[in-house]
Design brief:
The protein is of the alpha/beta class. It has helices at residues 4-20, 143-160, 167-190, 220-237, 245-264, 268-289, 294-323, 330-335, 342-359, 368-375, 378-388, 390-400, 405-410, 412-431, 436-456, 460-491, 507-521, 527-543, 548-568, 587-605, 608-625; strands at residues 27-32, 45-48, 53-58, 67-69, 96-99, 108-113, 123-128, 136-138, 196-205, 210-216. A hairpin with a 4-residue loop joins strand 9 and strand 10 (210-216). Helix 6 runs antiparallel to helix 7 (294-323), helix 7 runs antiparallel to helix 9 (342-359) and helix 10 (368-375) crosses helix 15 (436-456).
């Protein structure tokens, strides 16, 4: 009988070997004349790395040639000067000519023309430049190590005091408050500077090139702050958890450790380990404390995300073998990725994109999310929507884009299509939901589609808007799940048709509900609006009036938020509602909602506190990719 595990390992290994064998200098193609205009070069401002290959392909219909000239304004090819210029020969129709790679070995700019049509400004240039290295700034104090160690210690303490009726939740709260303070310190110290800050490195397996390499920049530091914020609020909202509370709070802290690890590690191997650890506590949170179909939801969640992780791991191994630096360091691999071939980049980016898109989640890999959200306890949904969904898009920007710029460019049309489909599909399905929690789950698909759209623009503003959306959604989506949790705790249902008319019995809580719904749909003055505006401006600049499609999705988004709010909270008292059970939310539910509203409003009014570091890091990534 065939050993399936051995077969899977062999299959994955063969894929890695196949991908690593695709490397060579990168190939570029310039079309001499196009179908729309026979008197232009298709890529008149080509940027390449030293040693890359350039092939000129003639479009049939006109005689052309390619002749190097001395400057961007010169119209004369010099055949007998001190410098030997490249020359394709006499003008001809329908040819193919390969530029000798000796001309692309050194940095500089090569100007060229088509001699017969130089007067029509048929000219171009090849810019040869090395990609900038990623920079690091070593930290003088192990702030990032604290973020990994203390939640883990707190988790052990919680379980050690499992026989105490109160100790576990106070341990969890004090631990998460401490990590919140450290997260704030990390965010402030990371600042708006270029490169990675607070870098720490601890060797683990030096022979394999594995180390615990930690660092943050303007993309990861806001997500570190977000993780720090959500931690204590999740603990407080679950203050009266009755079933196995010590294990419950221990799992929350283990998950916080793993989430911090994903956002601060700069080693592909360690990144993968933390990525997988995140699955374990969430699986048990759903399987033990979930709803009626918790077993189905937890297994589906695990199968989807674990399978995607294996595909992602294949991509990581291909990068490791191809870079040839005997290191899993994201910085080392990115700095040595200029020689990756086009085919290699496309295949590896495809593997990484699938791995990350499942976790975003993007259509069509989203179906695990509604089941997981509906069956998960409120605390699980808060962590899942608030922080865990950010792993996918963060991983795409951190682990895939810098070493694979050509692969990213190749998949831009697909990313745009999937983002727009996710926005519209998620919004339309949200409109048809009767379970408030499932409505919020599908709205997450739509909101994260906006973030993916920002990345697909390949612009600084688009990247910044995408990361800002991750933070804004990470604040307001947990607040929406808290609304669903409050209603379930009081009335025993989240079914919108069975709710209604409860505003008069809980006016203060209703006021919080309204602000949360308004913030989630994107009203000005709150964080979601800033992120959506940034992404849509960037998308209009890159794709023009295709913007109308995601804008239509925002119209639907406003519709399902307002309709759900009107049916569930306002209107006449529903006969299915036991109005005697309706009261103001207790302090441990009201305070977290109020704090999230305050944070969303603060960053909606003062977005530059987030935008400045995010924009700097976004520019660094695009500069490294050769996009700016």
């Amino acid at each position: 009988m065939v050993n399936l595990k051995s077969f899977n390992f062999l299959f994955g290994f063969l894929i890695v070997i196949f991908l690593s064998g695709l490397s060579s200098a990168e190939d570029h193609t310039v079309y001499v004349g196009t179908e729309d205009n026979p008197y232009i070069f298709s890529d008149a401002n080509l940027v390449i790395s030293p040693g890359d290959n350039v092939t000129f392909v003639w479009t049939s219909g006109q005689p052309h040639n390619v002749a190097q000239v001395a400057s961007s304004t010169s119209n004369v090819y010099v055949s007998n000067g001190d410098i030997v210029f490249f020359y394709s020969g006499e003008p001809e129709d329908g040819a193919t000519w390969v530029l000798n790679s000796t001309y692309t070995q050194e940095e500089g700019t090569l100007y060229y023309i088509c001699e017969p049509h130089a007067g029509l400004q048929m000219r171009g240039q090849i810019v040869i430049e090395s990609r900038p290295d990623m920079t690091i700034d070593l930290g003088s104090f192990p702030w990032l190590s604290y973020l990994l160690v203390f939640p883990l210690i707190g988790s052990i303490w919680c379980f050690a005091f499992r026989n105490s009726p109160e100790a576990h939740k106070y341990i969890a709260l004090s631990t998460t408050l401490f990590t919140l303070i450290v997260s704030c310190v990390v965010f402030v110290k990371a600042g708006s500077g270029s490169g990675f800050r607070l870098v720490e490195e601890y060797e683990w397996a030096p022979n394999l090139g594995v180390s615990l390499l930690l660092g943050v920049d303007g993309i990861s530091s806001p997500l570190v702050l977000l993780t720090g914020i959500i931690g204590p609020l999740t603990v407080v909202f679950s203050w009266h958890e009755k079933e196995k509370p010590a294990l419950f709070f221990s799992l929350l802290l283990v998950m916080q450790t793993a989430l911090y690890g994903v956002f601060i590690t700069l080693d592909y191997f360690v990144f993968y380990i933390f990525w997988e650890i995140v699955l374990i506590p969430m699986f048990f949170l759903i399987a033990i404390w979930g709803g009626e179909n918790r077993r189905y939801a937890s297994i589906k969640f695990f199968i989807y995300t674990f399978t995607a992780s294996v595909i992602m791991l294949v991509g990581f191994m291909a990068l490791y073998f191809e870079a040839g630096v005997n290191s899993f360091s994201m910085i080392d691999i990115a700095n040595n990725s200029s020689g990756f071939s086009r085919e290699f980049q496309i295949w590896v980016f495809a593997a990484l994109f699938i791995g990350f898109a499942v976790k975003i989640p993007s259509v069509p890999w989203h179906t695990w999310l509604p089941d997981a959200h509906v069956q998960a306890p409120t605390a699980g949904s808060i962590l899942l929507a608030g922080v865990m969904l950010k792993m996918g898009l963060y991983g795409l920007m951190r682990a895939a884009l810098p070493p694979l710029p050509v692969g990213a460019e190749f998949f831009v049309p697909l990313m745009v299509a999937l983002a727009i489909i996710s926005i519209l599909y998620g919004a339309v399905l949200s409109l048809g939901q009767t379970d408030l929690k499932k409505l919020v789950a599908y709205s997450s698909v739509s909101h994260m589609g906006v973030a993916l759209l920002g990345v697909a623009t390949m612009t600084e503003l688009g990247f910044a808007g995408a990361v800002f959306m991750m933070f804004a959604h990470g604040i307001l989506s947990p607040a929406m799940f808290m609304v669903a949790g409050v209603l379930l705790h009081q009335l025993g249902t989240r079914e919108i048709p069975k709710l209604g008319g409860i505003a008069q019995s809980q006016p203060t809580t209703t006021g919080l509900f309204v602000v949360i719904f308004m913030g989630s749909l994107g009203v000005p003055g709150m964080a979601v609006f800033v992120s959506e505006l940034s992404v849509f401006i960037a998308f209009f600049e890159s794709h023009g009036y295709w913007l109308l499609l995601p804008i239509f999705g925002m119209v639907i988004t406003a519709g399902y938020h307002l309709w759900a709010l009107q049916r569930a909270i306002f209107g006449e008292v529903n006969e299915d509602v036991d109005i005697g059970k309706v009261h103001e939310a207790p302090w441990y539910e009201m305070y977290p909602m109020f704090i999230l509203i305050f944070i969303a409003t603060f960053f909606g009014i003062f977005p530059h506190y987030l935008m400045d570091p995010i924009s700097t890091a976004s520019y660094d990534i695009l500069d490294f990719m050769g996009e700016v």
